[in-house]
Each structure stands twice: as structure tokens, then as C-alpha cells.
Amino acid sequence: MEILVIGVGYVGLVTGTCFAEMGHHVTCLDIDEHKINNLKNNVIPFYEPGLEELVRRNQEAQRLSFTIDYALGLKKAEVCFIAVGTPPNDDGSANLGFIESVASSIGDHLSHYTVIVNKSTVPIGSARHIQKIIRKKLKKRQVDIPFDIASNPEFLKEGSAISDSMKPDRIIIGSDSEKAVALLKELYSSFTLNHDRILIMDLPSAEMTKYASNAMLATRISFMNELAGLCEKMGANINDVRHGMSADTRIGYHFLYAGAGYGGSCFPKDIRALAAMAKEQDQDPLILKAVHETNERQKNVLSQKVSDHFEKKGGVSGKTIAIWGLSFKPNTDDIREAPSLKLIDSLLKKGANLRLFDPLAIPKAKQVLEKEKNVQFCLSEYHAAERADAIVLVTEWKQFRFVNLKTVLSKMNGNAFFDGRNQYKAREMAVKGFRYYGIGVPQLPVDLLQELKTMGNKKARRYEDPRFDYSSPGFD
Ligand code: NAD
After folding, report:
1. Alpha helices in 235-361 (DSSP H)
2. Is 266 a catalytic residue?
3. 83: how many CB neighbours lie within 10 A of its CB?
């Protein structure tokens, strides 16, 4: 099939490349000429595991090409996907400026029957809006070119976007045109050979499904974060509570983690956009407002914990703080709405010196933070820990799970460790000599802390003393 994908962001580029990988002929179009020229040379504008190789392979096989030219892109297209950004307006509602501009350009250049499929996350009713813009343009051109419209929201996750696209949980197709549905079913059939996962519905339901899914996921996170705060105050451990809850199959084990708050380009904007839609319909979005506000509050929790820790130690001002992880989640370099940015801003305002490390996101973070004087970008988590009074883990990169904590501690000035993603266990960290703070994890009693510290010291001596009795109980 001949496919045009408009927008070479995370969604458009991954979608187009995966269609090409399935043997289709795909043209990807963007207004950003610099991005398009880079892509022609297999330079990818963002990090996504495995994407570069797929782009290269499919370009070499001449199944994938890049252009800025709408007329050229639409010339042969049977299906045209729209995958441009829908950023928030100040009031939280979705800004449809990019979508409207794409619809106008399609209307200016459409030359034969094409199925126009919207993949961007858009308010309910947007597909009809796109349809009207294209019709208006065709009327202006005094041409009668048939086209159909469909909604096909995208559910890929940054960091696992290729496997999510190749093996989707579900493919939602919203359309009232049988012809469009038949064409899209054929296009997607190769992605669902194992079992049919294509769900057909009307346009508004398809558009709503995307918001509903993201809102549910964000609700789970905010719910766990609210409970985490309560757990800390009441002596319960959110990690144990989570295990206890998850065992109920109606709740399940996935996506139920307390942490530093959700970020990224989707959850924050989609929750606000859905709330804005509700308000427009005179419905007070009580749950959505609470989800958003809880998340905003949660993004301040780590900074508050740092302040509390240093309160009797002269305050945060002048302290050196290492931050592990800048991207909004692991396996991506995307820092849009990342909790790390709010933490950095808050700690800088409190006068801290920051040593930042992230395996991938440093180039993007530099673009945002380059003017900050008290920020140093580091080469590794160990480098960031040098002379630090405290470490704050913000993103749960796998490489942070098994760091040599003894080496880390030996490089630090202080011993405070703020674990924004509950990657470590409080007792083990205490044995290793850290003053540990998790999210929703109560502080260990002072006498137990002392006991664990002594145990750690004995362990340390054991390594130094070859005559030590390894079988002695209580040390492992
Ligand atoms: P992005 O910002 O990474 O990329 C959008 C691209 O569209 C940019 O390259 C931009 O130059 C291009 N563009 C803007 N106007 C254009 C025009 N008139 N013609 C051609 N190109 C134009 O966006 P993204 O992250 O890929 O998201 C796209 C949409 O998909 C959004 O609505 C988003 O909510 C949704 N979505 C994103 C994800 C994700 O993980 N990023 C997942 C699911 C859905």
C-alpha cells in the first residue's frame, strides 16, 4: 500500500517506519526541513531503541522516504496519517493549530481518493473538524475529490515504541465509512496475524478511547502517590501495600507504582485536555482535577524531602546534590514535563549546586538548562556522586539498580539518598551507610537504624580482616 505519514515525531516516524518494515511504501512528511534532511541521512531526531536501524534498512530498500512537499507526498497515497503535535493551550485545552494547518495543506494538494486517518490525540469532534477544513479547501479549489476520514489513536510508549507498534495490544479504528474501515483493516492485518485485535467504532468513541486510557493510567499513578503520602505518615510501606493490592486480579500488577509523579508529553496534557472538554460540556471533572493536582503536588515531594533533611544541617543552600535521571521515564531522551525539571528548578531556587546525570537525556537537558550556573552535567552516576551531600534518583534507569553503592558512598560528602522511584530497600541502604528516603516508605526507627549501621560497619570490617569468621550469624 502507498502511505503518507505527516509529522516525523515519536508517533509519525515510528508508525511510518513500522509500516515500511511490513512491506508498504511509506513517505514521511514534516514541515521541519532540518529534521527531514537529517532523516534522509538516517539521523533520527530523538532516541528510540532500534529505530535508527529500521529507518536505515527501509530507506535502503526504498520502502521509506522523506519529504517536505505535500503535493509529492499525497500524489500516490492511498492512506494519509496525521501525527502532529497537539500541545496544551494555557487553559489546558488541546491546541489544534498544527492539525488545522495539516488539514488545510491536505485540502490544497489532495488529488485522488484518499483515506485521511488522524493518529494525533485530539478532542472529541476533531476528525469532523478536519473533514470540514479539507472540504472547504476542495470547494475553494472547485474540485470534487472524494475522501474519507478515520480516527486511529496511537498507544505506543516511548522507549518501547517499535515493539508496541509491531505488536499492539489493540488497534482502534473509528470511522463511519465502510470503505475506509476495510482499507485500514487490510493495512493493519499483518500486525494482528496472531489474533484479531482490531476494534471498530464510531469517530467520537475512538477519539475518547485514547483520552480515557491515558486518564485511567494517570489516575492509578496519582492514586498510589496519594496513598504513599499517607503510608509515610502512618508507618505503612507502599511497596508492601502495592503487592497486597496487586494480587487481586481486578487490580493487577501493572502501572501501580508510587514515585516522583508522571510526566512526558502525553499524560499531563491529555488529562488537562479531557478536563477542559468536560468543562466545555458543563461537567465538573472532579476526578481529573484531583489526578492533575495530586501529580503537581507529587512533583514537589522530592524537593521537600531534601529540604527537610537539610533543615538542621544549615539548609539546602550551598549543598551539592546529585540527580540521577532526567528523562521523564527510562529508555527515552524525552524530558518534556519530566519531574526532574521541577525538582531542578526548585533546588536551584533553594541555592543548591547540582550534578546531573542521565544515560541519554543530557543533550536535551542542556538545551533547557544551559544558562544555569550551578548545574554541572556528569559522565556517569558515579561522577555525579562526587562530593555530593545527597543523591536524588528521579528516573528508574536499569543501570541505577545495581550500582556499587560502596563506591558511590565513598565519593560523596554526605550520605543522604532520596529514591524517587523506590528502587532500593530502606534496610539495605541503612546497612550500606545511607540515610535513605523512599516514596511512601516510612523512616526506620532510630534504634533500628543504629543497629543496621553497626551491622554495616562490622560487615565492612569483615572485608578488611581476613581472620574474620564468615559463618558468624547475623551478618548476611
Ligand atoms: P512530536 O512533537 O514529537 O512531533 C510532531 C511533528 O509534527 C514535528 O516533527 C513537527 O515538526 C511536525 N509538524 C507540525 N506541524 C506540521 C505540519 N503542518 N505539517 C507537517 N508536519 C508538521 O509529537 P509526537 O510526540 O509524535 O505526538 C504526536 C501526537 O501523537 C500528539 O497528539 C500526541 O499526543 C500523540 N501521541 C504521542 C505519543 C508519544 O509517546 N509521544 C503516544 C501516543 C500519542
Report:
1. 238-246, 267-280, 286-298, 301-310, 339-349
2. yes
3. 25
Which residue, judged by its Cα, is nearest atom 3 of ligand 1? 9
Domain parsing of the chain, residue ranges? 2-201, 211-297, 299-463
pLDDT in tens, 178-232: 999 999 999 999 998 888 899 999 999 999 999 999 999 999 999 999 999 999 9
Q: What is the mean pLDDT of residues 236-247?
A: 97
Active site residue: 28, 231, 266, 378, which one?
A: 266
Number of the ligand 1 atom closest to the C-alpha atom of 86? 32
Question: Please, what CATH class does the domain formed by 211-297 belong to?
Answer: mainly alpha
Beta carbon of 32 within 6 Å of any ligand 1 atom: yes
Which ligand 1 atom is the nearest neighbour of the CA of 157? 40
Cα-flanking dihedrals φ and ψ of residue 84, to 5°? -100, 170
Ligand 1 atom nearest residue 11's Cα: 26
CA-closest residue to ligand 1 atom 2: 85
Strands 64-67 and 79-82: unpaired
Residue 65, classed as helix, strand or coil, is strand
Fold entry, domain 2-201: Rossmann fold (3.40.50)
Mean pLDDT across the chain: 94
Cβ atoms 97, 62 nearer than 8 A: no
Fold of 299-463: Rossmann fold (3.40.50)
Contact 263 CB / ligand 1 (< 6 Å): no
Cα(265) to ligand 1 centroid in Å equals 10
How buried is 34 (Cβ within 10 angstroms: 0-12 exposed, 13-18 middle, 19+ buried)?
A: exposed
- Written as one letter, the residue type at 239 is N
Q: Is 321 exposed, middle or buried (0-12, 13-18, 19+ CB in 10 A)?
A: buried
DSSP 54: H
Answer yes or no: same fold for 2-201 and 299-463.
yes
